[in-house]
């Protein structure tokens, strides 16, 4: 299968240069973070952390791992922090060095980038037209595979995998000796997280790794802070040794500790996203598109035959995600973030104009 170029959302810097406009004049709907902005408590703690820059950051992130352990209900020893989720993906690839990887697609392109860095052979499992993970995936799992990568909810579709099915997938993977990377970076902003997360299964499945991030919920992609959960201490040590010692800055550790205390902010973010997700789906469904039932703060839709919507939206100052570089998606698939109500209304107005809806 042809390798596609790596393209990511959120690159307002490049787009501003291309369009010869200021970054602040771009409404970025290509990146999916909390519409509430950075929590004030996080801003305050990062400012206070300036004095600590005279010292190297804690390479073990001990305080942060302990706080994450309390928040997620796991042992601090099961936590590995990294310089964002992407850093941990590359550490995982370097630590495991998988030779053959099963990857349901479409999927977040960073998985492929990390795996190709260690020359892993990627076996694409092409989901059907509805892009749902079903029990048919079980038959695609083979003994010669080292790793299975899953995302719940999926990026870019926003669709969820049922917990019962995940349990069966993990059990078969355990029997076959397959590691499973389960990306739950967006799950914590879903109101029914507890009905889908596999954090409580870590001890039962030493082959399970769960990827988490502070980026989405707390709107701090520029800080670069993520973490991985696993009960497999040997695996975590391999991953830890696959990167440099001070990958998580003093600023990032301070931001993480502060973010975990923002319980009211988290609750408000979840409420806002739920409301705006419903609103956006109602309105987008009125357009001549094929919309997928995403659960969180981004929505995927297809504009059959229309391949230039993203370019036309730029005229209105909107940056939306062209999904043509996702394996198993065509060049008429687009993803938009779910933001504040006011911003969402502006986006919908521009979409209606470009899709000629009266």
Could you explain how this protein is built, in words?
With 358 residues, the chain is α/β, with parallel strands linked by helices. It is built from 13 helices and 13 strands. Helix content is 37%, strand content 15%. It has a seven-stranded mixed β-sheet with strand order 2-8-7-6-5-3-4, sandwiched between helices. β9 and β10 form a beta hairpin.
Q: Alpha-carbon distance between the termini?
A: 41 Å
The main pleated sheet reads as: 7 strands, mixed
Q: Which H/E pattern describes the elements?
A: HEHHEHEHEHEHEEHEHHHEEHEEEH
Average pLDDT, to the nearest integer?
94
CA-based gyration radius: 20 Å
How many beta strands in the DSSP annotation? 13
Please report which band the strand proportion falls in: under 5%, 5-15%, 15-25%, 25-35%, 35-45% or over 45%.
Answer: 15-25%
Structural class: alpha/beta
Low-confidence region ranges: 1-6
Regarding quaternary structure, what we see is: single chain
Task: Give the overall silhouette.
Answer: globular
Strand order, main sheet: write it out.
2-8-7-6-5-3-4
Q: Helical stretch count?
A: 13
Share in helix: 25-40%
């Amino acid at each position: 299968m042809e390798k596609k170029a790596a393209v990511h959302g959120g690159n307002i810097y490049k787009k501003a240069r291309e369009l010869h406009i200021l970054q602040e004049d771009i409404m970025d709907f290509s990146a999916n973070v909390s519409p509430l902005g950075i929590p004030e408590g996080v801003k305050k703690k990062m400012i206070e952390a300036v004095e600590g820059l005279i010292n190297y950051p804690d390479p073990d992130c001990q305080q942060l791992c302990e706080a994450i352990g309390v928040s997620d209900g796991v042992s601090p020893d099961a936590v590995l922090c990294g310089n964002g989720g992407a850093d941990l993906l590359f550490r995982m690839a370097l630590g495991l060095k998988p030779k053959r990887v099963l990857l349901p697609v479409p999927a977040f392109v960073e998985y492929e980038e990390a795996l190709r860095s260690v020359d892993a052979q990627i076996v694409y499992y092409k989901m059907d037209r509805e892009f749902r993970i079903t029990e048919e995936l079980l038959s695609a799992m083979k003994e010669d595979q080292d790793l299975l990568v899953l995302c719940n909810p999926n990026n870019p579709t926003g669709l969820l995998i049922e917990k019962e099915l995940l349990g069966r997938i993990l059990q078969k993977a355990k029997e076959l000796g397959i590691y499973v990377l389960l990306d739950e970076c967006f799950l914590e902003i879903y109101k029914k997280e507890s009905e889908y997360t596999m954090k409580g299964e870590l001890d039962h499945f030493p082959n399970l790794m769960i990827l988490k991030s502070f980026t989405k919920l707390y709107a701090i992609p520029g800080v670069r802070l993520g973490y991985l959960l696993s009960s497999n201490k040997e695996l975590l040590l391999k991953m830890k040794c696959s990167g440099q010692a001070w990958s998580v800055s003093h600023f990032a550790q301070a931001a993480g500790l502060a973010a975990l205390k923002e319980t009211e902010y988290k609750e408000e973010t979840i409420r806002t996203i739920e409301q705006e997700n419903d609103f956006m789906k109602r309105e987008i469904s009125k357009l001549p598109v094929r919309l997928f039932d995403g659960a969180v703060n981004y929505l995927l839709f297809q504009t059959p035959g229309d391949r230039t919507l993203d370019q036309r939206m730029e005229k209105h100052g909107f940056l939306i995600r062209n999904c043509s570089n996702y394996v198993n998606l065509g060049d008429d698939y687009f993803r938009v973030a779910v933001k504040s109500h006011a911003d969402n209304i502006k986006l919908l107005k521009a979409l209606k104009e470009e899709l000629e809806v009266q």
